[in-house]
């Protein structure tokens, strides 16, 4: 009875979870349309992983309601487990086994017959570009290959919802790109992805919708474009040689500029990157300020946070 | 019926993973075997001449069942390590978020650990036969003695699972500090009769002592007897103690496993 899940693949209503006397989630709401990617953005301790673990049936909730792939995460946990896959922060790849053996093992644990498990492993190795390395032990894989193997093992049963908890933490840029490509590919196949990340650019690259978490609650949500425009997009940073020049630079950058006297640095949000760079360079030259460095960069997560929540990201001790 | 079939398949898949590890990384197996073999040589051949067995008898013949017991007891650390590393690396979470049978996870663990311990006992017994240990009451009794050791090992799997879920791998690797004295305050290396009063009571009632004493009796090795109730009923206790461990730690492990979602 393959009832198509229409509407929301992941739904959370007022989720609450307490650890000791601290609420890790305090009325968390989320609605992810089927076949889309939702990025949960927030610093360590904001509640991202807690939310994912509850929705993946790994953690009991203390209040509210969660529904994944059309089933309640508490009352219908086994039904949820058959339809989701979880990829945690650490790799669950078994180093001693070969890539193929890893996939066959998970296939068997997802209750495929031996023949089905082998056939599915071959398909996945092909899809994730691991066929050439299939019979090498995972120990010899690069970081990106291990991640891909880990992802492949989540796709044994073609889950309708995939939870990715910080999929690229600790990977170099090239390997991150590989993982992003795989995530985009699985979404084309119809899988809904809920992804947690600490990187703004990762959410920007992958997510249709971004939810910013702060202290267990949704602080902001929308498309990456909308969130970025809230922040004024990119930032310009000017570093000076002489601290005495800092006030002059601030005047040039405008009233919202932030001054970091210790770093001899002034930064401000800019709407048009190139125009701003030209304007600032010539203004500084005309005032006779010698800049050590002028850079254009994207806002950091800390700045997103500061802009959205009005306070700095607090890292849980 | 399906549930049972999947429990069997799942436990085999989990056990096979460990067995493949041992075959491909035999260094670990050798390292595990090296300790008991070296101990047998040190205690048997180096200290052996200075050791006395209460009631008389050859020390090597006395020592071997004690070494079997210590090896089995150390197995609890191996189980703890594997369980806590799997939990720490998120493998346990993957198992829990999958439709696999939860019985399969622990049954697979027991199976793999029992195979490993059987191998350790076999190698140790061969080593013992070389340096002069033997069994004198026939093969069936000897096999029964080994079955008692494995029965204890099975019980320790449950303690290992519970403790492994309780602590992180760093703490699990420190468990030796507690385990080592626990295996020495027993009849493993020295007869309890030769220990000071309070320690003697501890050693006599140590569950490991019951299994070792029962095995000595079944093997026909020296050092059997003693006037405490525990020493006189070692065979009964060798069956009962592990049963008590299983009865306590089986439900505790299941509870702990569920409470990972606390």
Automatic annotation (TrEMBL), chain A:
Domain ABC transporter: 10-240
SUPFAM superfamilies for this protein: P-loop containing nucleoside triphosphate hydrolases (SSF52540)
Key words, A-Z: Antibiotic resistance, ATP-binding, Cell membrane, Membrane, Nucleotide-binding, Translocase, Transport
Main location class: membrane
Record flagged with keyword Cell membrane: yes
Cellular location(s): Cell membrane
Gene Ontology CC annotations of this record: plasma membrane
PANTHER family: ABC TRANSPORTER ATP-BINDING PROTEIN (PTHR42711), DOXORUBICIN RESISTANCE ATP-BINDING PROTEIN DRRA (PTHR42711:SF19)
Family: Belongs to the ABC transporter superfamily. Drug exporter-1 (DrugE1) (TC 3.A.1.105) family.
Protein name: ABC-2 type transport system ATP-binding protein
Automatic annotation (TrEMBL), chain B:
InterPro entries: ABC2_TM, ABC2_TM_bact-type, ABC_2_transport, Nod_factor_ABC_transporter
Pfam family, one: ABC2_membrane
Superkingdom classification of source: Bacteria
Localization, UniProt: Cell membrane; Membrane
Bilayer disposition of the protein: Multi-pass membrane protein
Residues that span the membrane, as ranges: 33-54, 60-85, 119-136, 142-165, 172-190, 235-255
Gene Ontology biological process terms, A to Z: response to antibiotic
Keywords, sorted A to Z: Antibiotic resistance, Cell membrane, Membrane, Transmembrane, Transmembrane helix, Transport
MF terms (GO), sorted A to Z: ABC-type transporter activity
Domain ABC transmembrane type-2 span(s) in chain numbering: 27-260
The protein, known as: Transport permease protein
Source organism per UniProt: Lentzea xinjiangensis
Family note: Belongs to the ABC-2 integral membrane protein family.
Cellular component GO terms, alphabetical: ATP-binding cassette (ABC) transporter complex
